[in-house]
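The aim of this short unit is practical: by the end, you should be able to scan a pair of folded records and say something sensible about each. We start with the first protein, listed as its amino acid sequence and then its structure tokens.
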Amino acid sequence: MDDQIKNGTAKRIKIEVDPEGPEEVVIRCKKLTPEILKLQELLETGATAPSVQKLSLTIGDEEYLVDLRKILFFETADGRVAAHTDKRIYNTDMKLYELESILPAAFMRVSKTCILNLEAVGWLRRELTGPCRVGFGTSPKQVYISRMYYKPFREKLEEMRMILK
């Protein structure tokens, strides 16, 4: 684990208790990301992270409450956002950036047009041209991870694997 911290591949959290010192939280990071800003806001307001378990989605005129664990990915095409499960495609009026703000940590943006459920990833294959192709177990559905998102994707996937051990 120490080698991972030295190489910058793992995040570390350090808590120091000082009964006489001031109460403060310091975040050191390589760059300011939306996740860090969200963490800052949660710390400042004392709020808790949203805990969405189900999402209201539609197919035609019918509305469904869909368990987030069943969603493989969200994808935008032709100005519409679709939520893909193993067998169905639902629609939502929310934009990808709105979904990012309410989805749990298992969901991650992997391209300009896609948010992926990391817990649903069954396999991945690196393509010669650069992007990475991801599949979902028994589902024939696949998505591509753009080169820009590949490194953060691998890091977050590795973090999740370490948590599950």
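Turning to the second protein, read its sequence before its tokens, just as you did above.
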Amino acid sequence: MWKKLENLKAIHECGMIAIIRSDDAEDAYKIAEAAIAGGARALEVPFAVPDVLNIIKRLTSKYSSQGIVIGVGTVLDAESASAALLAGAEMLVSSSFNADMIRMANRYQAITVSGAMSATEISDSMAAGADIIKLFPADFYGPKYVKTLQVPMPTAPIVPFCGVTPENVGEWLAAGCVAVGVGSYITKAHKKDGDYGKVSKAAATFIEAIKNARA
């Protein structure tokens, strides 16, 4: 089976892409490991994280063979996309539509998550070959916006980023989202006492909420 197809299935089955943010490289790596321990199967580490490409190399060398999808976020151009792919990333995420990023990723069979807000941006992303549409910032729109978009664009594979919680994830999925992007709920769970076990617990809690919503 194509690895890209396997990775897309992993994202859909888990229902979540965890966004790993930190201003410290080692902290980001530990957050990523803890999220995986909690059941996360797809991770995005943004370019804003220090030493991000080395983090990607470490994560992919350890987890790629286990079916964990490791990606890079805030990919703004083809040059950044190339660097991420060379580091081993199997998913590229942008906050806005960028045809060069999508083209580069498709050339090497990496998953593309293309940022979009309007129907035009969503349509352009899909026409360019994006695998997933990142609705960002989703909290400015809400599930009703997705439900409305699904009427003229029922094939749009929308994943909301920003503002999704265990309490409202069911609303997003019911509106037609194929998965959700989750950041601070997971990545900041250890901040008070440095207990990365709380990151794992947060990831597991969110995944359970997704399963319950889908049921």
